[in-house]
Amino acid sequence: MSEAIFSKAKEMKEEILAQLVSNEQELESFRIQYLGTKNQIKPLFAEMRNISNERKKEFGQLLNDLKQTAEHKFEELKGSVSGSANEGQAADLDLTAPPGEIVLGSRHPVSIVLNRFIKIFTKIGFTVVEDREVEDDWHNFTAMNTPEDHPARDMQDTFYLKDSTTDLLRTHTSSVQARVMTSQKPPIRIIAPGRVYRNETISARSHCQFHQVEGLYVDENVSFADMKQTLDYFAKEMYGPETKIRLRPSFFPFTEPSAEMDVWLGTETENARKLTKGTGWLEVLGCGMVDPNVLENCGIDSKKYSGFAFGIGIERSAMQKYGISDIRMIFENDIRFISQFKSEI
Question: What is the pLDDT, as a whole number, of residue 335?
């Protein structure tokens, strides 16, 4: 009886080694027959009780070898079937066919407008400076002549770090100006682009994060006329050579005198009337002469040096340029929205 069982196991091994398959169906049949839950090798393990004690070890080794042979053969057959399929697929390839359409990516509207601003100002000698977004109270507020009781310092308006009353997410890139003025001697001519944060309710017109480009020029005998000439150049480069500007009195803690700059869009088109609320004038940026207190706070002699500064919101400019009605669309990264700007690459 035991000899017959030994012979059956050896014959099954020879059958396994002789197996050939030509497709996935035959491969699956092999797996079910020799490796499935009800395979033909399992009953041989049940015959162990009929083997004499002195031959049980020998029979166990034979069965283990049989099982391993089936597993190795399956992997071998699997490779041959997969190789045949790949050969068939390769044979179907037309190497002379033209390639499919190469889809180009798109630049974000904020990046497009920001790069435009940088290009305009670097042409007249401004240097791009970037710095940290997590700032301290002194560089963000105190150095910029913002008193301690100013509403902007309230947590309702500013994002402070957890368990801190001095570390915050910068509310403007003026903090970069403060760091430059405390580390460099005039003349200073920089623009500071970057992301800023304010604790505001998100709506179609405002967001808790946005981008700014702020400019600073400090040197001897810098005047309000120098600022106006610089901004007039910017407006003509940005909006067209016939663009007219006007400066309206305003107030900012870090400049004195301060002004808002408008550009004339006219009222001839419906879009112009909508953007300007029928006035023809569109508010573009805030500007002014650097307050002497700011210069002194940063270690610059205000009796010897003067300067001007300005700040432009990137999102507002992008919304104006492309007719975007909701600022939230800029931050949602919807590919259907972003893909509209392919032509700007």
Answer: 85
